[in-house]
Write a structure and sequence with these properties.
The structure is a single chain. The protein is an alpha+beta fold. It has one domain: Alpha-Beta Plaits (2-Layer Sandwich). Helix content is 47%, strand content 19%. The strands form two sheets. Strands 4-5-3-6 form a four-stranded antiparallel beta sheet, with helices on one face. Strands 1-2 form a two-stranded antiparallel sheet. The chain starts with a helix and ends with a helix. 13% of the residues are buried.
Length: 150
């Protein structure tokens, strides 16, 4: 299956990028609180937050005690900034809507402090071959330029 550049890359007014991350985070004490109506509300909240941050959700799954999200993130956002917004705002909104979380989860955030993040992208060999190919492309352009000046 061949991808076009539109499928593969995202564009802003000044950049073309492919910054994809796999995030995983858990509620405090790994409580199984992401069930039933909470799961659906969290899905809506995360979708709204990603839209607000101009983040594309590639895949996502909410388990009873953790969340997986595979996201395409604009280069203006760091992974830590994305997690700060997603966990902070979702915690705030869920705690307002569900008073039981205020009693069960200590302090202000319903999420555990840590999270997992991994980059997802082109493998090393593809990048090496691309960079090596740039030398050949430059040589072709230089050769063409030589004949234009004559």
């Amino acid at each position: 299956m061949k991808f076009t550049s539109e499928d593969y890359f995202q564009k802003t007014s000044h950049s073309t990028y492919r910054c994809e991350y796999h995030f995983v985070w858990v509620p405090k004490y790994r409580y199984k609180v992401l069930v039933d109506d909470v799961k659906e509300e969290l899905r809506e909240i995360l979708t709204q937050l990603c839209d607000w941050l101009e983040i594309k959700i590639i895949e996502g799954f909410i388990c009873d005690n953790h969340v997986h999200m595979y996201l395409s993130v604009p280069p203006k956002h760091s992974p830590s900034h994305v997690m700060k917004i997603l966990t902070g705002k979702s915690s705030e909104l869920l705690r307002k809507r569900h008073p039981r979380f205020r009693k069960r989860m200590l302090k202000w955030n319903m999420w555990a402090r840590g999270y997992f993040v991994s980059t997802v992208g082109v493998d090393r060999e593809v990048i090496r071959n691309y960079v090596r190919g740039q030398e050949k492309e430059q040589a072709k352009e230089d050769q063409l330029r030589l004949w234009r000046d004559v």
